[in-house]
């Protein structure tokens, strides 16, 4: 089922989760659906289109910053503004999740480095994931995850590495009590993946990338465990001891 932004926001009555997207037609996809199922409403903002971010998250249950085709190293004003804004959830200790570009922005905010692979390799398709000891203590993780990126990040000082990969070692981390970053994508619905495969086909020739057929075939084998993990992960971030933070 597909929702427009207004439906996402008004379907439930709890405190909204702030959703930050980076393209006009971007969607929170599966993450949006799962948050709605957990009783949250969604407040969707697109800073790239000039939409303002709140000065405080007092009226929000937390925030999720999604991916996008731009780089956290770009000198665009909205990129710098978003990276600076991350002081809000960190200072207020609000639940925060950065996905791909969102994780890289968090790394930049914390003083870490975002950069391409030293051999120019990309991760575009399905790739193995291995949880660290701290990650395994937190929950069960999927063995394969969906990736679509040409840059990775180092681990910020004070962060805990939760999951790793062979090409880009830093795949998931936690900073402090409530800030989380993941390099891979658990938010893609089937429709979203088909759109990415069509519009991103020119990237399948990059070093390390998989052909489009492998993206769709891999979904049949690997998406179920990834979806289940995303559900549990969002519960862990935005709910505590069975009590929703939406109220």
TrEMBL record:
CDD domains: GATase1_1
InterPro entries: ChyE-like, Class_I_gatase-like, GATASE
Domain Glutamine amidotransferase: 57-189
Keywords, alphabetical: Glutamine amidotransferase
Entry superkingdom: Bacteria
Gene3D superfamilies: 3.40.50.880
Protein name from the UniProt record: Glutamine amidotransferase
């Amino acid at each position: 089922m597909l929702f427009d932004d207004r439906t996402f926001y008004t379907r439930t009555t709890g405190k909204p989760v702030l959703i930050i997207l980076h393209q006009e037609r971007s969607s929170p996809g599966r993450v949006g659906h799962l948050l709605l199922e957990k009783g949250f409403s969604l407040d969707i903002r697109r800073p790239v289109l000039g939409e303002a971010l709140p000065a405080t998250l007092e009226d929000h249950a937390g925030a999720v910053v999604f991916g996008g085709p731009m780089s956290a190293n770009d000198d665009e004003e909205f990129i710098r503004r978003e990276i600076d804004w991350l002081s809000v959830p960190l200072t207020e200790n609000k639940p925060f999740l950065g996905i791909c570009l969102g994780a890289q922005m968090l790394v930049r905010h914390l003083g870490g480095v975002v950069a391409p692979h030293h051999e120019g390799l990309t991760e575009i398709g399905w790739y193995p994931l291995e949880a660290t000891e701290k990650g395994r203590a937190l929950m069960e993780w999927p063995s394969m995850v969906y990736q679509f990126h040409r840059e990775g990040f180092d681990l910020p000082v004070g962060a805990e590495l939760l999951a790793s990969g062979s090409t880009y070692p830093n795949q998931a981390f936690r900073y402090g009590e409530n800030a989380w970053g993941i390099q891979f994508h658990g938010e893609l619905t089937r429709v979203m993946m088909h759109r990415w495969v069509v519009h991103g086909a020119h990237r399948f020739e990059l070093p390390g990338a998989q052909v489009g057929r492998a993206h769709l075939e891999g979904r049949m084998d690997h998406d179920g465990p990834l979806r289940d993990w995303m559900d549990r992960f969002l519960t862990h971030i935005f709910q505590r001891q069975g009590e929703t933070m939406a109220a």
